[in-house]
Write a structure and sequence with these properties.
297 residues, 2 strands, two-stranded antiparallel ribbon, MetI-like fold, mainly alpha
Length: 297
């Protein structure tokens, strides 16, 4: 009888996750239910004051702003990543194009932020070019606003959306698009009604890989944004380092964690309705699938 060594092989990973993930999370949870110390930190006294402090107009405004900027950045990222992933999947030079997508990961995150400051700043490349061409000698304020933050966030997290989309699109049967065109669908209809439903998993993964880190972004709003770009990540950092209100910072962190975890579970646990395959499929997609399987006859 063969012994099952699965638990032995999984033990190092379990210990690693427990020590470096579960334990810090438990500490944050515990701190969120403690009282703020007189000179910062926490006192070992149970309190719900941190969660009561979350419900205030200022923090609600920052939360709504964070949610709005995260949604806008995620939507723009997905809209750019879809054609990029499709182009890479259909290309004969996939390795080269994937290499170009991964190259930004080789540069430090802060270096890329400061590169955008050099491009968008009042004395940056774009303003210098405008002055050289005789336009707007006083320059244009590109930095320190929500638009600049969204632009840089899209740039930073675009590879996280391109890679899962490429992986899904690369497995898609492109003869379905040809079959849909044979049935009278336009090029756009064949993409929207045949390809998109078949790559839904990649789109969901790309959304999660971009929305979650953007929602907790700290460095980009701090360096690129202004007063109207203050996000929850900046609130947490200020509560930890400036006001030293550790319980409030922990409570905000827990709220963000719960929100993102619920989003992940919502997408992960979604199951198709128990209908037949023909009822679930778009009529055009079902017809094109049948045409492709029959060889287009």
């Amino acid at each position: 009888m063969k012994r099952n060594y699965g638990m032995v092989y999984a033990a190092p990973q379990s210990v690693w996750l427990t020590v470096f993930f579960a334990t810090p999370l438990l500490i944050i949870i515990a701190y969120s239910f403690l009282k703020k110390g007189l000179y910062g930190g926490v006192e070992l006294q149970f309190s719900l004051q941190a969660y009561a402090d979350i419900v205030n107009p200022t923090l609600m405004k920052v939360t709504l702003r964070t949610l709005w900027m995260s949604l806008v950045s995620t939507v723009i990222t997905i809209l750019i990543a879809l054609p990029c992933g499709y182009s890479i999947a259909r290309s004969k030079n996939q390795a080269l194009r994937l290499f170009l997508v991964i190259v930004p990961f080789w540069t430090n995150f802060l270096v890329r932020c400061y590169a955008w400051i050099a491009i968008l700043g009042n004395e940056g490349f774009i303003n210098q070019a405008l002055r050289f061409l005789g336009f707007r000698p006083e320059g244009i304020q590109f930095l320190y606003n929500q638009s600049a933050v969204v632009l840089v966030l899209v740039y930073m997290y675009l590879p996280y959306a391109i890679l899962p989309l490429f992986s899904t699109i690369d497995k898609f049967d492109f003869t379905l698009l040809e079959a849909a065109r044979d049935l009278g669908a336009s090029r756009m209809q064949s993409y929207l009604r045949v390809m998109l439903p078949n790559i839904k998993g990649g789109i969901v993964t790309a959304v999660l890989f971009t929305f979650i880190p953007i929602f907790g972004a700290y460095a980009v709003p701090l360096l690129i944004g202004g007063k109207d770009s203050y996000m929850l990540g900046n609130v947490i950092a200020d509560q930890l380092t400036k006001t030293r209100n550790w319980p409030l910072a922990s409570a905000i962190s827990m709220s963000v964690t719960i929100l993102t975890a619920l989003s992940v579970f919502f997408f992960a646990l979604r199951k198709p309705k128990a209908h037949s395959a023909e009822k679930d499929l778009d009529p055009l997609a079902a017809a094109s699938s049948g045409r492709a399987l029959s060889g287009g006859g």
